Every structure is written in structure tokens, then in C-alpha cells.
Amino acid sequence: MNLEQFQKELVAYASEIGIDKIGFASAEPFFNLKHQLIRQQQLQYQSGFEEQDVEKRTHPELLLEEAVTIIAIAIAYPSKMNDAPQGTKGARRGIFSRSSWGKDYHAALRERLTLLEAFIAAHYPDARMRSMVDTGELSDRAVAERAGIGWSAKNTNIITPEFGSYVYLGEMITNIPFTLNEPMEDQCGDCRLCIDTCPTGAIVEGGQLNAQRCISFLTQTKGFLPDEFRSKIGNRLYGCDTCQTVCPKNKRKANQIHAEFEPDPEIAKPLLEPLLKISNREFKEKFGYVSGSWRGKKPIQRNAILALAHFKEVSAVPALIDLLESDERPVIRGTAAWAIGRIGTAEGLHALKKAEEQEKDSEVLGEIQKGLAFFAEESKG
Question: Closest Cα to residue 299, out of 224, 366, 245?
């Protein structure tokens, strides 16, 4: 079988195993991306989760000798939740971003890439391959853009004509010289909705993101959330979809294609108060299969506390006081203190004053004082 015919069979096989788009890109260095990444580092816009070595991120030949082609894949995920539960007073709910609604996409994409590798190896035993998903060195988006999967939008997402930006991306470097796809023309035009509606101004200009201000990144941090972002997180427990939901290219893109990514509503929109006391084992059993659990329960619990403060949920005050008085983790105690002050009940005021006398941690004391300051402001008003 010649290579052209094999490439057609590979594309057909990819569709059979649940890959929604596949493209082929040159493994030449990503020189434009290199300049962008260096600029990101200079501006301190990086999240810190990505590979720090710019050379590895932009030179595929450093990752696989004799690299010739990069195969890019995309799998669509749903933007619509059937039977989504509604939070009510006394039973408030948080929300995970759409990319974390179903099975962890890292596992789902790796499974498909492994199948692709086996398919290629069966026909080309001497083929060399290296696959990666999200946490690999290469930029998934830069590869997908070069491979014609979609165009790189102003919100830095890849937008596909078929599925919008609701797609997971992965890639495989290989030494096989496949026929390459052409990159897709940018179709954002003059639209800047994603820039204008970003809650924290994280999209500083079209195609450039300050990850340090991005709510998706902030929800994954483990320390105290900076004050300026606490009122902007809303009820988000993990991730943020604002720049996707406002995008005109995502209208009517439900993408309810793969059963494994369909959300369990009680996982994707869980009740907030039970999260405050969930054990490590319970958290792993309930949320361990979704990508939003990768940082553990602490960020989710901190975000749940902030969400209850956002709703000013009075029924949560006893549980928050319990955290303030007994939780071993300073971030949780301190965030609870801030939330108690934000909600503002007499019971909460008494608890904060008591905690101020007993707390030894300086950061937590600072949060207790912030909580008390809310009461002082309220009394002035």
C-alpha cells in the first residue's frame, strides 16, 4: 500500500475510533510561537503549569529524532447539559467548566492516540511515534492550527467550523512523511466579544492571554485567591467558559456526540455545602474520573466557600464557622473567615471575634480581619 492510500485509511480509522477531526502538520520548528512564548515569559503571563523550556515547546525534533510530521487530533465535547439541576436558596450549586463534564479527556485522548499508534505500527513497523495530550511539551493549539484543525481565536482557543471551540486536542509526532494540511484562515474578523466580556480582563489583546488573571487558572491554584478575583469567581469550582459561551462561532454547537463526555449533573453542578466536609476518599470516588479533580479537593473546597459567599448563603454559615474553628488548613480557615464576613450574620460576627483571639496563623488572622471589616462597613452604611 502506498503512503497516500494509507493516509486515507488512517483518517477513516481515526473516525471509527471516535476522533472527530484529524490533520497533518509539518514538524518544522514553531518559530512564531517561540517569539510569543518568550514574550509571555517576559510579561510573566504564564500559568506555570506549562513546559518551561521554550526550545522543547517549539522544536519537535528535540522530542523525536527524525521528526517529519505531526498528526493533530480533535475530539468534540458537549456544551449543553440535559436536566441541569438549578441551585436554590439553602441548596446552592457550583459549576465545573464544560471541558470537565465527563471522563477525563487526558485518558480519552491517550486511548485514541494509542490506537492510532498501533494502527500505524501494523502497517509501518519501522515508524517512530511520540504522542502527547495537554501536559506534553508541544503547544496543542499551535499544532492544531498548523494542521488545519481550526484557527487560533482571539481568546487563544482553537475554533473549528464544525464544533466551535469545544474540542479537546492532542498530537503525535512521527517520522512518516504524510501529506500536509493547509492552515485555516482566521474567521474572528472584528469580533472582540471574548476580550470585552472576560470577567478579569485576562485576554489582554487578541490571541494573548495573561494566565495569571484567567479564572480558569485561578480556580486551579491552591493558595489564597487574591482579593480582586474573589467576587469575580461566582460559583465556578473549576475552569471558566465565559470566552467560549459568548463566542458567536459556538452558537448551536451542542456537540452531544460522545457518551463518555456527557455530564453527570450532580458532578458537573454539585451542591456546594457537602463539598466543605468531603473526605479525600469521598472526593476521589465522586470526582476522581473528571479532569477537574487533578489538583485535589483543596482548590475545589476553597472555590465552594467563595461561591457560598457570592450567594451570601446564610444557611452555610454554621458549616463555615466549623471550618474556621477546626480545619487544619490555613487557606480553608482563612477563606471561610472571609466568606463569613461577606455573608454577614450575627452568628458569624461572634465566631470571627472568637477566632481572632485564638488564631495563631498570621495569614488567617489577616483574613479574619478582612471578614470583620465587612461588618464594620455594613454598620457604617
Answer: 224
Following CA atoms 315, 318, 320, 325 in sequence, which dihedral angle do they give, to the nearest 10 degrees? 180
**Nearest to 71, CA basis, from 159, 126, 131:** 131
Identify the architecture of domain 316-381 in CATH.
Alpha Horseshoe (1.25)
Q: Which residues are identified as catalytic?
A: 134
Only one residue has cell 459561551, namely 245
Please tell me whether the overall predicted TM-score, pTM, comes out greater than 0.90 for this model.
yes
SS3 of residue 297 by DSSP: helix
**284, 293 in Cβ contact below 8 A?**
yes
Q: What are the tens digits of pLDDT across the range 308-348? A: 999 999 999 999 999 999 999 999 999 999 999 999 999 99
For the chain, give every domain's residue range. 1-311, 316-381
User: 349-353 — which CB contacts under 8 Å span 24+ positions?
Assistant: 349/375, 351/321, 351/324, 351/325, 352/324
